[in-house]
Write a structure and sequence with these properties.
By secondary structure, this protein is mostly helical. It has helices at about 1-30, 45-50, 55-90, 95-120, 125-140, 150-165, 170-175, 180-185, 190-205, 205-210, 210-220, 220-230, 235-240, 245-260, 290-320, 350-365, 365-395, 400-430, 435-460, 465-485; strands at about 40-45, 270. A two-stranded parallel sheet has the order 1-2. Helix 4 (about 95-120) packs parallel to helix 6 (about 150-165) and helix 15 (about 290-320) runs parallel beside helix 19 (about 435-460).
Length: about 500
């Protein structure tokens, strides 16, 4: 009995001591200053981006990275403006003029996937900055091209540089809060429109007096200005945290928070480190395979139709093919004198004005684009825009006045541009950070295949039959709309994934 009573007293004593310790710990915890938890708090990359919100940094980012679209648009519109000039200087056939565009897009295609891989491995900022420098350098060299062969080689090198600058869209998207992506990213068309207009205005003012070579030299000035602004843009914090550079990511986020006059969430940034960045096999694994295949076709059609519309409109104007069902050889090579044929048929001022007005169409319906994205989401918006684009491609075949043609071209360019914009946004949102750049890069590579084919239809086949040349673009859009129905993911309102 005595032993049992002693054991009971010992147990009560231990329990009392334990209870006293617990009460002491609770008392000490209660005396801790507010905000100092014993266990540290953590926040994710998505929470950091959303917590910082939208502010001055994002406006600067939007302007600098959006300017990448100026450079790309200038390079594409330059092909439409300079085609009549090089046709005249080197006495080129239709297929040779088309081959210039094909070589540019070949440079895009080869470098697109490679630049995406490098951006996922070593950072977005380095690739975009290097792309601007590369494109500016080879564009300047193009203006000194002594022969047609040198011209197409140097333009393909320019295309390679522009493929790298397209990673600027990824960099911009990764910093943008989710609720602003559907409103601000479509406004990138403003920069694309500015690029197109700059080249057209240079064509109107410089080409008739100084020639096409000086037009190219002056066209690199925007690139040089953008290169100077790059020092204000940091590397993507999402990329930094994915490769384990947590300290660098936090420093970047704090810098953005100071510019926006906000603060980071309490605690420490924590995200899983991705062991393998830029693995192309991830894009075609069972989870993403269908999405990738359908996106590759969507990008192919978007590029095929966009460049087809730009180049075919310039051909219709250059060769005076409006209301011409079956063009004869005189629409390809016009007589300059009574006894000889000349390849020279440059744009007149009215032709430049038509191209200028049609370029405005790329931004005119941006409010409608934003409304569709917010109300219907990404995939439904793409389906609607693709069907409407197919209809308007066929409407261009209708014989009308020049004013009617300009209106149709204006609306067609608007719809095509809106669809391209939604495809860009969806692609940047659907892939995880570990393969976002290479995913975008491979998509742009497939789009350039469309760009390589488009000139031979818009510039060569158009000389044979306007209806036959425009029908493939409408058919491609119908097939693309059907494919978009089967996209498995809707990204509207969804957080951007860091890993698969």
């Amino acid at each position: 009995m005595t032993g049992r009573r002693g054991s009971s007293m010992k147990t009560q004593l231990v329990s009392a001591i334990h209870l006293e310790d617990v009460e002491l710990q609770d008392s000490e915890a209660g005396r801790q200053p507010v905000g100092e938890a014993r266990d540290p708090k953590f926040y994710s990359m998505e929470e950091a981006v959303e917590g910082i919100g939208f502010g001055r940094f994002h406006i600067l980012l939007f302007v600098v990275m959006g300017s990448a679209n100026i450079v790309e648009a200038m390079e594409i519109m330059l092909l439409a403006v300079v085609s009549p000039e090089i046709r005249c200087e080197w006495h080129l056939e239709d297929w040779q003029v088309a081959f210039v565009s094909t070589m540019v897009f070949l440079g895009y295609m080869i470098c697109g996937g490679f630049c995406g891989y490098v951006a996922d491995k070593y950072g977005r900022w380095k690739v975009v900055f290097g792309g601007f420098v590369w494109a500016s350098y080879f564009s300047l060299l193009t203006s000194f091209a002594p022969t047609y062969g040198w011209f197409i080689f140097l333009r393909s090198m320019v295309g390679c540089g522009v493929a790298a600058t397209s990673q600027g869209f990824v960099l911009k998207t990764e910093f943008m809060p989710a609720k602003y992506r559907s409103s601000l990213l479509p406004l990138s068309t403003i920069f694309w429109m500015l690029g197109s207009m700059i080249i057209i205005i240079l064509g109107m003012t410089v080409v008739p007096t100084l020639g096409w070579r000086w037009m190219i030299r002056l066209s690199i000035i925007p690139s040089l200005l953008i290169i100077g602004l790059f020092q204000f843009i940091p590397e993507s914090a999402r990329f930094q945290v994915s490769v384990g550079n947590i300290r660098g990511a936090v420093a970047t986020l704090r810098r953005i928070a100071r510019m926006n006059k906000t603060s980071l969430p309490d605690g420490d940034l924590r995200e899983p480190i991705v062991t393998e960045m830029g693995n192309a096999l991830t894009i075609i694994n069972p989870t993403l395979r269908r999405t990738s295949l359908l996106l590759w076709f969507s990008w192919f059609v978007a590029s095929f139709s966009y460049y087809g519309s730009v180049l075919s409109s310039s051909e219709l104007l250059e060769k005076d093919l409006l209301c011409v069902t079956n063009p004869d050889p005189e629409h390809s090579i016009k007589p300059n004198h009574e006894e000889e044929l000349c390849y020279c048929n440059p744009f007149n001022m009215d032709d430049y004005k038509t191209l200028l007005i049609s370029s405005l169409g790329e931004v005119a319906l941006s409010p409608l684009n934003i409304g569709l994205l917010n109300l219907l989401g990404r995939t439904c918006s793409m389906i609607i825009l693709q069907v409407l684009s197919a209809i308007f491609f066929m409407l261009v075949n209708i014989c009308s006045t020049m004013i009617g043609f300009i209106v149709l071209l204006f609306l067609l360019r608007s719809l095509i541009s809106m669809n391209f914009n939604v495809v860009y946004i969806y692609t940047a949102e659907v892939y995880p950070t570990s393969v976002r750049s290479i995913g975008m890069g491979l998509c742009t590579s497939f789009s350039r295949i469309g760009g390589m084919i488009a000139p031979f239809i818009a510039q060569v086949l158009l000389s044979k039959s306007v209806l036959l040349a425009l029908s493939p673009f409408a058919l491609a859009y119908c097939l693309c709309a059907l494919g978009t129905v089967f996209l498995p993911f809707e990204t509207s309102g969804r957080a951007m994934l860091e890993t698969e």
